[in-house]
Protein backbone atom coordinates (compact mmCIF):
# COMPACT_ATOMS: atom_id res chain seq x y z
CA UNK A 1 0.00 0.00 0.00
CA UNK A 2 1.31 3.46 -0.90
CA UNK A 3 0.86 6.61 1.16
CA UNK A 4 -1.57 8.01 -1.41
CA UNK A 5 -3.66 4.84 -1.14
CA UNK A 6 -3.65 5.10 2.66
CA UNK A 7 -4.73 8.74 2.57
CA UNK A 8 -7.46 8.09 0.02
CA UNK A 9 -9.51 6.31 2.70
CA UNK A 10 -9.64 2.71 1.45
CA UNK A 11 -11.92 0.43 3.43
CA UNK A 12 -10.45 -0.93 6.64
CA UNK A 13 -10.67 -4.58 5.56
CA UNK A 14 -8.22 -3.82 2.74
CA UNK A 15 -6.00 -1.71 4.99
CA UNK A 16 -5.76 -4.19 7.87
CA UNK A 17 -3.17 -6.51 6.26
CA UNK A 18 -0.94 -3.45 5.81
CA UNK A 19 -1.43 -2.29 9.39
CA UNK A 20 -1.13 -5.71 11.03
CA UNK A 21 2.68 -6.07 10.81
CA UNK A 22 3.03 -2.60 12.36
CA UNK A 23 0.74 -3.37 15.30
CA UNK A 24 1.19 -5.30 18.50
CA UNK A 25 -1.50 -7.47 20.08
CA UNK A 26 -2.65 -4.66 22.34
CA UNK A 27 -3.23 -2.30 19.42
CA UNK A 28 -5.14 -4.91 17.43
CA UNK A 29 -7.41 -5.63 20.39
CA UNK A 30 -8.00 -1.93 20.96
CA UNK A 31 -8.72 -1.51 17.25
CA UNK A 32 -11.45 -4.14 17.52
CA UNK A 33 -12.76 -2.43 20.65
CA UNK A 34 -12.77 0.96 18.89
CA UNK A 35 -14.91 -0.39 16.05
CA UNK A 36 -17.29 -1.88 18.62
CA UNK A 37 -17.45 1.35 20.64
CA UNK A 38 -18.21 3.26 17.48
CA UNK A 39 -21.45 1.27 17.34
CA UNK A 40 -22.20 1.79 21.04
CA UNK A 41 -25.80 3.08 20.63
CA UNK A 42 -26.64 -0.09 18.68
CA UNK A 43 -25.34 -2.41 21.40
CA UNK A 44 -28.62 -2.75 23.23
CA UNK A 45 -27.60 -5.69 25.42
CA UNK A 46 -25.42 -4.95 28.44
CA UNK A 47 -23.57 -8.24 27.88
CA UNK A 48 -22.26 -6.87 24.58
CA UNK A 49 -21.12 -3.63 26.18
CA UNK A 50 -19.46 -5.47 29.05
CA UNK A 51 -17.51 -7.60 26.55
CA UNK A 52 -16.14 -4.49 24.82
CA UNK A 53 -15.02 -3.05 28.15
CA UNK A 54 -13.43 -6.40 29.01
CA UNK A 55 -11.61 -6.46 25.66
CA UNK A 56 -10.04 -3.09 26.49
CA UNK A 57 -9.07 -4.38 29.94
CA UNK A 58 -7.51 -7.46 28.32
CA UNK A 59 -5.57 -5.27 25.90
CA UNK A 60 -4.13 -3.25 28.78
CA UNK A 61 -3.26 -6.31 30.86
CA UNK A 62 -5.84 -5.57 33.54
CA UNK A 63 -7.43 -9.02 33.14
CA UNK A 64 -6.23 -12.28 31.60
CA UNK A 65 -7.80 -14.13 28.69
CA UNK A 66 -9.54 -16.62 30.99
CA UNK A 67 -11.34 -13.75 32.73
CA UNK A 68 -12.13 -12.14 29.37
CA UNK A 69 -13.93 -15.32 28.28
CA UNK A 70 -16.38 -14.88 31.16
CA UNK A 71 -17.51 -11.71 29.36
CA UNK A 72 -17.13 -12.81 25.75
CA UNK A 73 -19.24 -15.96 26.09
CA UNK A 74 -22.31 -14.07 27.39
CA UNK A 75 -21.80 -11.61 24.51
CA UNK A 76 -21.91 -14.50 22.05
CA UNK A 77 -25.16 -15.67 23.65
CA UNK A 78 -26.57 -12.14 23.49
CA UNK A 79 -25.73 -11.97 19.79
CA UNK A 80 -27.46 -15.29 19.12
CA UNK A 81 -30.55 -14.32 21.10
CA UNK A 82 -30.85 -10.96 19.35
CA UNK A 83 -30.52 -12.64 15.96
CA UNK A 84 -33.34 -15.08 16.81
CA UNK A 85 -35.58 -12.42 18.35
CA UNK A 86 -35.39 -10.08 15.34
CA UNK A 87 -36.28 -12.70 12.71
CA UNK A 88 -37.88 -11.84 10.43
CA UNK A 89 -36.09 -8.48 10.40
CA UNK A 90 -38.56 -5.67 9.85
CA UNK A 91 -36.53 -2.55 10.53
CA UNK A 92 -33.15 -1.30 9.31
CA UNK A 93 -32.30 -0.52 12.93
CA UNK A 94 -32.81 -4.19 13.85
CA UNK A 95 -30.41 -5.24 11.08
CA UNK A 96 -27.80 -2.81 12.34
CA UNK A 97 -28.21 -3.96 15.95
CA UNK A 98 -27.76 -7.60 14.95
CA UNK A 99 -24.61 -6.80 12.93
CA UNK A 100 -23.21 -4.77 15.83
CA UNK A 101 -23.80 -7.57 18.33
CA UNK A 102 -22.20 -10.10 15.97
CA UNK A 103 -19.16 -7.82 15.64
CA UNK A 104 -18.72 -7.84 19.42
CA UNK A 105 -19.13 -11.62 19.54
CA UNK A 106 -16.29 -11.97 17.03
CA UNK A 107 -13.87 -9.89 19.12
CA UNK A 108 -12.82 -12.93 21.18
CA UNK A 109 -11.40 -14.81 18.18
CA UNK A 110 -7.63 -15.08 17.61
CA UNK A 111 -6.52 -11.50 17.42
CA UNK A 112 -5.75 -10.82 13.73
CA UNK A 113 -8.56 -12.94 12.30
CA UNK A 114 -10.92 -11.66 14.96
CA UNK A 115 -10.13 -8.01 14.25
CA UNK A 116 -10.73 -8.52 10.55
CA UNK A 117 -14.09 -10.14 11.24
CA UNK A 118 -15.09 -7.39 13.67
CA UNK A 119 -14.25 -4.77 11.03
CA UNK A 120 -16.18 -6.68 8.38
CA UNK A 121 -19.32 -6.80 10.52
CA UNK A 122 -18.81 -3.20 11.65
CA UNK A 123 -18.67 -2.19 7.99
CA UNK A 124 -21.96 -3.95 7.33
CA UNK A 125 -23.44 -2.27 10.40
CA UNK A 126 -22.36 1.20 9.23
CA UNK A 127 -23.86 0.63 5.80
CA UNK A 128 -27.13 -0.68 7.21
CA UNK A 129 -27.37 2.13 9.74
CA UNK A 130 -26.69 4.74 7.04
CA UNK A 131 -29.76 3.45 5.21
CA UNK A 132 -31.79 4.97 8.05
CA UNK A 133 -30.71 8.37 6.74
CA UNK A 134 -31.80 7.52 3.19
CA UNK A 135 -28.32 7.79 1.73
CA UNK A 136 -27.70 6.40 -1.73
CA UNK A 137 -25.68 3.21 -1.91
CA UNK A 138 -22.68 5.14 -3.22
CA UNK A 139 -22.88 7.58 -0.33
CA UNK A 140 -23.29 4.69 2.13
CA UNK A 141 -20.04 3.14 0.91
CA UNK A 142 -18.19 6.48 0.93
CA UNK A 143 -19.38 7.36 4.41
CA UNK A 144 -18.43 3.91 5.68
CA UNK A 145 -14.93 4.08 4.19
CA UNK A 146 -14.32 7.55 5.58
CA UNK A 147 -15.41 6.52 9.07
CA UNK A 148 -13.31 3.35 8.99
CA UNK A 149 -10.27 5.32 7.88
CA UNK A 150 -10.79 7.78 10.74
CA UNK A 151 -10.79 4.87 13.20
CA UNK A 152 -7.59 3.41 11.74
CA UNK A 153 -5.95 6.84 11.66
CA UNK A 154 -6.79 7.41 15.33
CA UNK A 155 -4.80 4.34 16.34
CA UNK A 156 -2.04 4.42 13.72
CA UNK A 157 -1.81 7.99 12.44
CA UNK A 158 0.06 8.10 9.16
CA UNK A 159 2.23 4.95 9.17
CA UNK A 160 4.40 6.46 6.43
CA UNK A 161 5.46 9.31 8.72
CA UNK A 162 5.82 7.94 12.25
CA UNK A 163 6.38 10.54 14.96
CA UNK A 164 9.14 10.28 17.55
CA UNK A 165 8.32 11.79 20.91
CA UNK A 166 10.69 14.46 22.21
CA UNK A 167 11.40 13.93 25.91
CA UNK A 168 11.13 17.70 26.41
CA UNK A 169 7.41 17.44 25.63
CA UNK A 170 6.83 15.05 28.52
CA UNK A 171 6.30 17.53 31.29
CA UNK A 172 4.42 16.45 34.39
CA UNK A 173 1.40 18.42 33.15
CA UNK A 174 1.40 16.72 29.74
CA UNK A 175 1.80 13.20 31.13
CA UNK A 176 -0.81 13.75 33.84
CA UNK A 177 -3.33 15.09 31.32
CA UNK A 178 -2.73 12.20 28.92
CA UNK A 179 -2.96 9.56 31.66
CA UNK A 180 -6.15 11.10 33.01
CA UNK A 181 -7.98 11.32 29.71
CA UNK A 182 -6.94 7.76 28.83
CA UNK A 183 -8.18 6.42 32.17
CA UNK A 184 -11.45 8.35 32.00
CA UNK A 185 -11.94 7.92 28.23
CA UNK A 186 -12.30 11.71 28.26
CA UNK A 187 -11.04 12.28 24.74
CA UNK A 188 -12.90 15.58 24.59
CA UNK A 189 -9.92 16.85 26.62
CA UNK A 190 -7.47 16.19 23.77
CA UNK A 191 -7.44 19.88 22.69
CA UNK A 192 -6.28 20.73 26.23
CA UNK A 193 -3.50 18.17 25.81
CA UNK A 194 -2.57 19.84 22.52
CA UNK A 195 -2.23 23.20 24.31
CA UNK A 196 -0.07 21.62 27.03
CA UNK A 197 2.13 19.93 24.42
CA UNK A 198 2.53 23.21 22.57
CA UNK A 199 3.48 24.97 25.83
CA UNK A 200 6.10 22.24 26.32
CA UNK A 201 7.64 23.03 22.93
CA UNK A 202 5.86 20.54 20.66
CA UNK A 203 5.56 21.99 17.17
CA UNK A 204 4.74 18.74 15.37
CA UNK A 205 1.74 19.54 13.20
CA UNK A 206 0.56 15.91 13.03
CA UNK A 207 0.41 15.64 16.82
CA UNK A 208 -1.31 18.98 17.39
CA UNK A 209 -3.77 18.59 14.52
CA UNK A 210 -4.79 15.11 15.65
CA UNK A 211 -5.43 16.30 19.21
CA UNK A 212 -7.56 19.18 17.93
CA UNK A 213 -9.50 17.13 15.40
CA UNK A 214 -13.09 16.04 15.94
CA UNK A 215 -11.99 12.43 15.98
CA UNK A 216 -13.29 9.88 16.58
CA UNK A 217 -10.85 9.10 19.38
CA UNK A 218 -10.65 5.88 21.39
CA UNK A 219 -8.27 4.02 23.66
CA UNK A 220 -5.19 3.34 21.57
CA UNK A 221 -5.18 6.89 20.11
CA UNK A 222 -1.64 7.17 18.75
CA UNK A 223 -0.87 10.56 20.33
CA UNK A 224 -2.00 9.53 23.81
CA UNK A 225 -0.09 6.26 23.50
CA UNK A 226 3.00 8.15 22.36
CA UNK A 227 2.89 10.56 25.30
CA UNK A 228 2.10 7.93 27.95
CA UNK A 229 4.69 5.44 26.67
CA UNK A 230 2.14 2.82 25.68
CA UNK A 231 3.23 2.81 22.04
What would you say this structure looks like, in words?
It is a single chain. With about 230 residues, the chain is mainly alpha-helical. About 65% of the residues lie in helices and about 0% in strands. It has twelve helices and no strands. The protein has helices spanning about 5, 10-20, 25-35, 45-60, 65-85, 90-105, 110-130, 135-155, 170-185, 190-200, 205-210, 220-230. Helix 5 (about 65-85) runs antiparallel to helix 6 (about 90-105). The longest helix is centred in the first third of the chain and has 21 residues, at about 65-85. The model has no long low-confidence stretch (mean pLDDT about 85).
First CA to last CA: what distance?
22 Å
Beta strand %: under 5%
Would you count the extended β strands for me?
0
Unreliable residue runs: none
Shape: globular
Q: What structural class do you assign from the helix and strand content?
A: mainly alpha
Radius of gyration: 18 Å
Order of helices and strands: HHHHHHHHHHHH
Q: Roughly how much helix do the residues carry, as a percent range? A: 55-70%
Total helix count? 12
Indicate the multimeric state: single chain
Mean pLDDT: 86
Q: Tell me about the biggest sheet?
A: none
Amino acid sequence: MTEDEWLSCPDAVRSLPFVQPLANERQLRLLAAAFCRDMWPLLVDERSRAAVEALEALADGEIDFEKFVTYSEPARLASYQLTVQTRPVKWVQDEARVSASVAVACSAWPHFFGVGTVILHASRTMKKWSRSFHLSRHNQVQACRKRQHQLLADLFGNPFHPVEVDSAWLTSTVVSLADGLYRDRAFDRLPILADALQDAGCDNESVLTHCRSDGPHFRGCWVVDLVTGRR
